[in-house]
Every structure is written in structure tokens, then in C-alpha cells.
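Q: Predict the bound structure with zinc ion.
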Amino acid sequence: MHSVLIHNIGKLVTPLAKDKDDSTRPLLEFHNAAVLIEGGRFKSIGRSFDLLNTTPADVARHDANHKLMLPGFVDCHTHPVFVGNRAGEFFMRNRGASYHEIAESGGGIHASSRKIASASVEQIVRESLPRFEMSLAGGVTTIECKSGYGLTWLGEERLLFAMKEIEKIIPQRMSKTFLVHVIPQDSQNRRVEFVQSVVEEMIPEVHERKLASCVDIFCEQGAFSVEESRQILSVAKQLGMSITIHANQFGHSGGAMLASELGARSADHLEYLNRDEIEALQRANVVAVILPACVYFMNAIPYPPMRSIIDNGMRMAIATDMNPGTSMTESIPFCLTTAAIYGKLSIGELLWSVTLDAARVLGMEDKIGSIESGRFADFSLWNLPTPESLAYFQGSAFADEVWINGEQVFESQFTVQRY
Ligand SMILES: [Zn+2]
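A: Predicted complex:
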């Protein structure tokens, strides 16, 4: 990997790892900056004028043209691997159908699962790849990716294979999660046997073949009970896998309490969250993962109490929840818009939640998430005057350049300077 000096950076903005427990979430802001990259990692950060003078002449130079430089974003909760499109459901919901009514009419997760059942790995890869490209254009350099629409082992295995294929093609770092989503339709009357097959066959298989490093469960009415979730996640934990929970999306499901009991890496959703649950999660050091674009898109559940989560000392990440049913967006900038409005968050709170705190969810907080010496050189350049503009241009902010491991992996074909 060659060395490169990124110079003439108008403004470099980044959180710093030393502030990882600082509840005020400060940001370093550096004007007229340059960054020297060596071996795929940040080597030094300084004034553009100084680094241009001190860097050896044989090191390549890349002019940032006064752009805004930010650390690569980490989208730590996504379901991007599926086929087809559920726009029809979106309109049903807008006419008043509930999440559960849509599911009962044959839509929802089971609709995606039927499509997976008749799709080849090649089709799944082909239809999923554009979503990773869109995510990259929004500045995401590390993406968590869940299975979950296969439901049966046959379907899940196909999805996990597709994820492996996609990982080979895309430039982003990928963190793979095996999601135990809902009971397949043909196993509805055999719950106990299905849970047993997850525990005794599926999870050991996923672990042994290294198909995913994390296990997630949808702990909610209509999906899995607290007891079933505990049984499933305990097995994953015993195998040394990390665990996470889709918790408290439609009510006080017990998912948040279970996340704190088991020491999950994160509890995700948390639209319904009371003081006791916040305190339990905080004590167990569980990161809250907030999915504001999902709440916006569903328009039927409350926004999570983002202010209380932060003000009670919890770490919080924000992610897209990219999925065909309840959050069809790949855009982290759009999530920042919704979180800024409905969470009343500052720019520091927003940026931390998609960089270092999101990296913490994936266990990568020492490697990525900030522009600091020794970390992987994952960053983006934007034709925007300030980081606040990311949230301000609701959903229409795209990166101009994206770099991963010190290599440029994306250049926008649509270059517009915004003021
Ligand atoms: Zn989700």
C-alpha cells in the first residue's frame, strides 16, 4: 500500500478516541489541514502548509480542494440483502394498515422470505449490490449486515452465502450478523422445535463456518419471547459470538432488560424505553442503537427518547436499519436529519453516533471511527461548508470522495459545491 498526502483540506472534523466516555461528545475541528497516510493508516495530521513542506517529494499528493473531511461513517444496523421491493406495503401503511395487519395479509417479513426462497445467490447478490453503492455514496465505509429474510436454514444459508460474495466485491468493511427474525410460516405450530433447531443446529453451524460473528434476535410480540430470546442468545454467547437484540420497538417487550442481563453489545430500536430500562442498559454498558429513519418511515411509533439516553450517560449509535419493509434508505445523512429534528441532538452527538460510538457496537472502536494516527484511513470528502450541513440538506447530501484503507474507492459523478 502506497503513501499519500491529502492536502488542502478546508475543514477536518473528527471525534477523538480519548473522549470516548465524555458525555458532551466534543469534536476536533482543524482548518487548512493535511493528512499523511502510510500503509493504509493515518500517519500524521497537521497544517497543510507544514505537511506539504515536510513530506518527502516521492509521496503522492492528493488535493482535497478545500473540501470538508470526515471520518468514514459506520452503519451498524442494516438488512440490505434481499430481493424485490415492498413499495406496495408502504402505501398500504399510509392508508392506515398496521405493521401487524400487513404481516397477517401476507406482507412483511414473510413476503421477503418467499422471494428469497425462489431466488438464486446470484440474483440476491445482483439486487443487493446497488444498496451498498448508495451507502458508500453517503459516506459509509463500514457496514454491518444482517441475514434474517431466509427464516429457514435453507434460506438463511443462501443469504449468508450472498453476504460472503458481496463482501468480496464491495470496498467497505463488512460486519456480518445472523439474525433470528421470526418463526417461518410452516413452523408456526412447532415453535419449540424451531427454537431448538436454531440453538442446536443453526447457530453452531454459523459459528463453525464463520458465516457471521454476531447473533441478533427480534424480541417482540409476533416474533420471539424473552424466554426464547434468552435461550437463543445464551448459546451464541457461550460460543464466544457477540450478541445484540431488536428490542422495545412496539412496546416494553423485555428486550432491553434482556440486553442488559446478557451484556449484549447493543440494544437496537428502543422506541419504548423507560427510566428503569435506561438505567439497566447504562449499568451493563450496552450501546443504544437508534434507527430514526425507521420511525419516520413507519409513522406509527414514537421516536426513542434520544435525549434521555444521552443525558443518562449511555453511549448511542444511529444507523439506517436499511430494509425493504420499514426503512428503505441507505442514507446515513438522512438519518442524521431525522435524529437532529426528533432527538434535538447537537452536531457532536450526531457525528459520534455514526463514527466512534457505532464502531464500538461492532467492537472496532480501536481501529476505525476517527481520523487519528494509527487508525485505518477511512474517510470522506464533502462539498459542504460544515458538518451540520449533512443533516441540514435533508437526505440530499452525498460524499464527493470516499477512501478506505488509504485508497480512493468512490468519486461522485455529480459534483456540486454547496454553501
Ligand atoms: Zn433492524
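A: The mean pLDDT is 96.
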